[in-house]
Design goal:
Blueprint: E1 5-10, E2 13-18, H1 29-43, E3 50-55, E4 60-62, H2 67-75, H3 80-96, E5 102-106, E6 109-111, H4 113-116, E7 123-126, E8 131-133, H5 147-150, H6 158-165, H7 171-176, E9 182-183, H8 189-195, H9 205-215, H10 226-238, H11 243-253, H12 259-270, H13 273-286, H14 291-308, H15 311-320, H16 337-343
GO biological process, one term: L-valine catabolic process
Keywords: Hydrolase
Domain Enoyl-CoA hydratase/isomerase: 14-344
Amino acid sequence: MSDEILFEKKSGLGLITLNRPKALNALNYSMIKLLHQTLKAWAVDSEVLAVLIRGAGEKAFCAGGDIRSIYESITSGGDEHAHFFRDEYALNEYIYTYPKPYIALMNGYVMGGGMGISQGAGFRVATERSKISMPEVVIGYFPDVGASHFLSKCPGSIGEYLALTGVTLDAEDALYANLVDWILPSEKISYLIEKLQNLQVNISASSQVTDILQDLGARNTPNNAALAQKRELIDGVFSLPRVEQVIARLEEAVPNGPVWLAETAELMRKRSPIAMVGALETIHRGKDLSISECFEMELALSTRWIEVGDFVEGIRALIIDKDNLPQWAYTLPELSEQKVQSLFPSLSKH
């Protein structure tokens, strides 16, 4: 299994390669455990001055967790999915406090679990090829892997917009949304890795990484982000407290508004109602929680979601049977505030 994730120490650089290019480098359980174990070892290894994590191939950094294996565990009555979520979130949380520069090279697709292993990075580096999203509502789940923290920290109501729609951002939009720190031209990737193998021991590794990125022409301010143009409308619509209010406001604005409003309304009509409600609830709660509390909430909810949510049906319809005809368990009118709170008892202490 170890050839699915590769670890190399190269002249002071700890280089990690997610090596499942045909699966868009999706994370399985053994990869999560090996990654956490190695990061802990490298944290106290004097030979490692900085860590860079990348995806094999050109298409993806990491397109999420291995959903098919999670589905098989749930439907067979196993418990691997419970261990998967627990250990994945523990890894994600650990990255936020990593003691050495941790550089996530977010080239290509970065979805779900790929965000989990990149959002805690000290250096989140995108390229013009980056396609970044939290698309959990598409399969009846809620944005997890710390999304209640990192989406709640997006400017204005952009986090709510991303959580409820699952739309994909390019690098400029992701930089504007505070989901990446740098945009590096993809042709400079090999130079970045090469230069990171020449870090000096007696100078701050973090400041050296910053200097290298700047020398290679990486930018840390967005340029013509489409999200910036949409921001006023996004804030006006997605700041509303309930999902049905968001959809109603979108539909009101459609006749005289830009095309993307109609597209967004159409997207949301197809999403799992309980997933959207769960997404909004976790983002709202995440604004007042610490990182640890966010992961604690998401872990409790992941267990609950298997019982009450649309996760299994969403995976069946979109990934297993591929009929794209999910039969969602609830309609939005059925999800009253009282019903929502009864569905999320695990969140009540927050």
